[in-house]
Design a protein that fits this description.
Elements lengths: L36 E6 L4 E8 L12 E9 L1 H22 L7
Antiparallel strand pairs: 1-2, 2-3
Length: about 100
């Protein structure tokens, strides 16, 4: 995705076309959470992303893996696609600098 003169990605509407308006990020009500577990489910109308924290001390134990869910983000499929594009770009840059991340399928 092309970046503007400030190094940021320009906003994209639900239909995918670029807009020329400026985005002002208001972070007054923003909260920060930590997650080391993520899960996704979706329907035709929405995509849900669940975030949580693994509380199991030893994940190789035979007992259940305890994950405390902390946040759920519900978005349209268009917003989910945009998130996918942005994350792919960020991770591509990260791996170019720090090496390939290997994750289990």
């Amino acid at each position: 995705m092309a970046k503007d003169e400030n190094g940021t990605t320009p906003p994209v509407s639900e239909g995918g076309e670029s807009r020329s308006s400026t985005v002002v990020w208001n972070d007054e009500a923003m909260q920060t959470s930590f997650a080391n577990v993520v899960n996704v489910q979706g329907t035709r109308e929405q995509v849900e992303v669940f975030f949580g924290t693994n509380r199991s001390w030893n994940p190789t134990d035979t007992g259940p893996l305890r994950v405390d869910l902390t946040n759920r983000m519900i978005m349209t499929p268009f917003a989910a696609k945009r998130l996918h594009q942005i994350l792919t770009g960020v991770l591509r840059e990260y791996e170019a600098r720090h090496g390939i991340l290997k994750v289990e399928d």
